[in-house]
């Protein structure tokens, strides 16, 4: 980060910098990165304290990294094996050995940024543990074409729900309803959004899986059924444009009280003990074609800033990522 | 209700009207009311759809009533016995037999408006079932001198928590800390409120029991601990003054996501199966003096509007009510 963004993100906020590798501590790994994630949270941390303090100028943009182990401490993953970790937009990452997740299930590496990674787990735990989706319920997903959203809608259907997408474009909605099994989709930029939404949920909303926060929640609230659940997964509307002080949804307290609603946030780390079991489920769904991850991957470290800007402008369906080099041989331990 | 209030409540919004008793349906009771509740929700229903559609002009203000059965269907409570029900500000109520709760535990009748009534159950279920208060946790209660709040603080202490009150006056805070066992109290009208609050919760807030909603929640959010719970019990700040469209708390989504917070509403009716067990606990606590209900009871139906206005102006500690006649003899079945 060359400059802290105050509003919309721009290429001038980034610079590529070369630095010599520092010495490794005894418990650290050196990893050659193959793939990096590009996600809305990267924008948030550029000027907002989130699950970590905001970046200072000169720090590297944090991201998931998928890479190959070059050096390893004793007891660490084998040299040459593949790991995923929370690293940054960099060619090589130095990682604490406790931080890395070994990749043992053979799958396209891109899937470890999406369905088999943080986003798949976010969608899965958000729907099953926070949303507690039951068969026959109506689930609405906002940011439905995003890295988490496009998986959440499909998973909600696999759980037996009827699923409605909210995105910012008719083109994305067409992809979601024709290719990814959403039952209906609404464009939040349409002048008739509130009415459109209401018409697509004739039986009300049981679970709202929220990736965007902001004004969309106000349109959702009057449609929530008693004992409805709002799963707070992301707040992309607040990430770009200095909107972190944006007011919360009007009428929230009264709606929550009178209809016994639950509005709940979570981090994937809250369910660490269940990651392995959940990943097995997600792998079964994706390898059998019932859960289709979409990825939009650009090439080269220099492509990452523009990929993030495109993402925030709402131009992608699915998970955005950057590929730094081809898949290494002997990938899975 | 003579006139729908658009802002602050005034005596002109009310009138007393005499109407002949209508015929009873076969499953209805006729009850001579002894006590009526005066509660912030009465203001809310005058211009807002809540758990019921808002009142139309000419309707009677809804309230809890405690009364003596004058006529009863076969299988109903005995003539002369005492019941509680959701009725209205009226001398006599006609009630469906399924609606009434028989009062069988001998106690001062005022307690059935507070600790043994709706408010005691609201505080109890809010803390135990929604807030899931654990010993050693820090609980903050807003509207802490109100009908629900003054019980919630005491119950939270009985559950082993450290309890901090928020009210709108230093006088009320003195009552709460010297008579009702609150560990500390903060005045939300003080210029140093945010700092005062922060200093009273050095270990952060685990449970916020919210009776007021609005700006206080914004001061609370940065102090909430990971996995904190916000119990949405009331929204008095939105009841008077046409503020039902007031924006929700700024920064809510980001706080909820990054600290895995839960923001949850409930109705006492959600826990109907547990009313009896909970009432036994509340009776034990109150009869042994560990839980001290405070009541502020005026006399005569005509005193009800002014009592509600006083309540909304924040002049009471404890439960407000109106007594229509002395306790009847042979009160408990």
Automatic annotation (TrEMBL), chains A, B:
Please report the stretch or stretches of sequence annotated as the Enoyl reductase (ER) domain: 7-322
| Keyword Oxidoreductase among UniProt keywords | yes
* UniProt KW Flavoprotein keyword: no
- InterPro entries in the record: ADH-like_C, ADH_N_2, ER, GroES-like_sf, MDR_fam, NAD(P)-bd_dom_sf
> In Gene Ontology terms, what is one molecular function of this protein?
oxidoreductase activity, acting on the CH-CH group of donors, NAD or NADP as acceptor
**Superkingdom per UniProt:** Bacteria
Q: Which CDD domains match?
A: PGDH
Task: Tell me which UniProt keywords the record has, alphabetically.
Answer: Oxidoreductase
The name under which this protein is listed is: NADP-dependent oxidoreductase
* Biological source species: Conyzicola nivalis
